[in-house]
Design brief:
The protein is α+β, with helices and mostly antiparallel strands. Among the domains are: 43 residues, no CATH class; 112 residues; 63 residues, no CATH class. 42% of the residues lie in helices and 16% in strands. A hairpin with a 3-residue loop joins strand 6 and strand 7. Helix 8 packs antiparallel against helix 13. About 11% of the residues have low confidence.
């Protein structure tokens, strides 16, 4: 049927068409969704718009800080607060609190009990100290040149002691200056700071050295005054000021026979000739070897006057007694040399070196004391050291300032008899 004969669709045509349908037929109504294809330009535009929106949101909303950044900012704030608060300690305000004993429930005492029940831990503590002694010995000057560059601990005898009391606590008072308050406060300080302050405020080695210097100087001055007044002899002064060791003679070696009191005529004649030659000038002596040779000795025929003239120019200047003229030193060098060689200055150096001791720090709380002997095996000898050290149970190490090493003995491996 041609489309020309079909009725036109109107708003009211649906009811007429539905009335013409035959009864008994099933009507199916389906929904159809029509989609249009998106071009590539529309997809690119959507992506660009989304990226632009994300950038705007990131610029408006601040990002959440990272955990490490939060910790860093917190540390900076704390450091800034600490730098703002300044403490000015006043001298002579240091207080030392006596050591307090450990209690049975303290963590330090529990750590002591754990170490005492663990032999493996004790062996590790001793091995660490032995290796530390070997490293310190190799770093010592002249040790490698004397015993060899290779060393290891072959044996050690060490004991571990557990202290009953904690180290003392030090406190200082002074002014605390902050942005909010200016007040008098008391803070704790370490033992190294206190020992260094006492070392410089009370220089015991220098004071004792000056005391020894003054004592010796007063003794010498008093002896000189007594000598000037005639109450002291030269023998006593020489024995007091300069003590020279006398050579000890063996009883088995006989002493030489004494010289004759009056020489014979031949000896007197020879001495007279030597005196006459000695009083003459050097240029008048034709043969200088005649002073030490006998009268019958003939001069060397190979020597010529030209050689003697050349040799005469090389002779040093002599005074009237045929002795070399001493060179004059500057007065400052003379004063320094006489002062450095004086007996009071020697007493000062000996006393200061004997009393001088570098300030040490107290061990940390919870440290154990390790003492004993450590033997080191070297290619040339076996060396034994006395060791005193504090082992920190918290850091599992020996602090450098808490280790003391002393030489005990040396046993050389190649031993030969001294007498042939």
């Amino acid at each position: 049927m041609s489309r020309l004969y079909r009725p036109f669709r109107t708003l009211f045509g649906s009811s007429k068409i539905a009335s013409r349908l035959q009864s008994g037929q099933t009507v199916r109504i389906e929904r159809v969704k029509i989609k249009k294809g998106k071009p590539a330009t529309r997809f690119i535009g959507t992506v660009f718009k989304g990226a632009l929106i994300v950038q705007v949101l990131l610029w408006i909303i601040p990002p959440a800080p990272a955990p490490q950044d939060v910790d860093r900012d917190r540390q900076l704030v704390e450091d800034k607060r600490r730098t703002k608060a300044r403490f000015i300690a006043f001298p002579f305000t240091t207080k030392v609190h006596p050591p307090q004993p450990y209690s049975g429930s303290s963590p330090e005492w529990r750590e002591f009990q754990r170490i005492a029940r663990d032999p493996e831990e004790q062996r590790n503590i001793e091995d660490r100290l032995a290796r530390l002694v070997v490293s310190h010995a190799l770093k010592a000057p002249n040790f490698a040149a004397k015993y060899g560059s290779e060393a290891n601990s072959y044996r050690y005898w060490l004991d571990i002691d557990y202290p009953y009391k904690a180290p003392p606590v030090y406190e200082r008072s002074g002014l605390l200056i902050t942005d909010e308050v200016l007040a008098w406060a008391t803070t704790r300080c370490d033992s190294w700071t206190v020992n260094m302050i006492n070392h410089y405020l009370w220089p015991k080695p220098v004071a004792l050295g000056f005391w020894a210097f003054g004592t010796e100087a007063v003794k010498q001055t008093g002896h000189k005054v007594a000598k000037f007044l005639g109450f002291a002899s030269d023998d006593s002064s020489s024995s007091q000021t300069t003590r020279q060791p006398r050579p000890s003679q063996s009883p088995s070696i006989p002493s030489p026979p004494p010289l004759p009191s009056s020489p014979g005529p031949q000896v007197q004649k020879e001495l007279q000739r030597i005196r006459q030659e000695a009083t003459r000038r050097p240029e008048q002596v034709k043969d200088p070897s005649s002073l030490s040779s006998s009268a019958g000795t003939t001069p060397d025929p190979r020597s010529t006057p030209h050689d003697k003239a050349i040799g005469a120019t090389d002779k040093p200047t002599l005074d009237q007694d045929n002795q070399k003229t001493p060179e004059q030193k500057p007065w400052l060098d003379t004063v320094v040399q006489s002062f450095s060689s004086s007996e009071p200055w020697k007493r000062f150096k000996e006393t200061a070196a004997r009393v001088r001791q570098f300030p040490r720090t107290d061990p940390a709380r919870g440290s154990v004391l390790v003492t004993g002997l450590v033997g080191i095996d070297t290619p040339k000898a076996n060396v034994v050291f006395d060791v005193i050290a504090w082992y920190d149970t918290k850091t599992k190490s020996y602090p450098p300032h808490s280790v003391r090493i002393y030489w005990r003995r040396t046993q050389h491996k190649p031993q030969r008899p001294l007498a042939k």
